[in-house]
Amino acid sequence: MNLYERYLLPALVHRTCSSSTTTCQRGKVVPLARGDVLEVGFGSGLNLPFYDPAKVTKVWGLDPSPELCRMASRAVRDAAFEVELVPARGEEIPLGDGRFDTVVITYTLCSIADPGRGLREVARVLKPGGRLLFCEHGVAPDAGVRRWQSRLTPLWRHVSGGCHLDRDVPALLVEAGFEITELETRYVPGWRVAGYHYCGTAVTS
After folding, report:
1. pTM of the full predicted structure?
2. The domain that contains 172 carries what CATH number?
3. What's the chain look like in SS3?
4. In a designed cystine with 149, which of 25, 82, 102, 165 is the match (CB 3.0 to 4.6 A)?
5. What is the pLDDT of residues 88-134, one digit of tens each?
């Protein structure tokens, strides 16, 4: 890990992911979580204020970045429910089968090296009847925007912690065995190349 990845990138990820736009999008899905919750891509803990303490028993926050987990420590201490940090990658969740009522993924699928494997892991740890709540950016419906997403992703992912601009979120979910039960898609204000967002819920089919 170089100095940029260790010191500058975590701060950049935190600042970008705490914009007013992404904050609004998080607020659409995270409050729906209930019971025992696994958050894949916990980062600096930006979702914690959106969980409903009356519905959530405990949150396990999974993230491979020690730097982001350290940034999350204050938010974890101040949470109104128990939070346990799990230092691991989304493709290798070190937790048991059928363990969670809810899995939350926000702005994470773009940077998981193998998103299909990560989503299969999510399906494995969900209880029967459990829900995946997701909020992601991804491939746009407009051909011109898609072309720029494809052109820029090879460079973009090298400076943004592996973020891909052009992942097809619904297709990834279906290929991993999920049934999408609710889906909202829209361009959000800002850079259109990273501005097409997918929010919704899914269950294992």
Report:
1. 0.96
2. 3.40.50.150
3. CCHHHHHHHHHHHHHHHCCHHHHHHHHHHHHHCCEEEEEECCCCCCCHHHCCCCCEEEEEEECCCHHHHHHCHHHHHHCCCEEEEECCCCCCCCCCCCCEEEEEEECCCCCCCCHHHHHHHHHHHEEEEEEEEEEEECCCCCHHHHHHHHHHHHHHHHHCCCCCCCCCHHHHHHHCCEEEEEEEEEECCCCHHHCEEEEEEEEEC
4. 165
5. 999 999 999 999 999 999 999 999 999 999 999 999 999 999 999 99
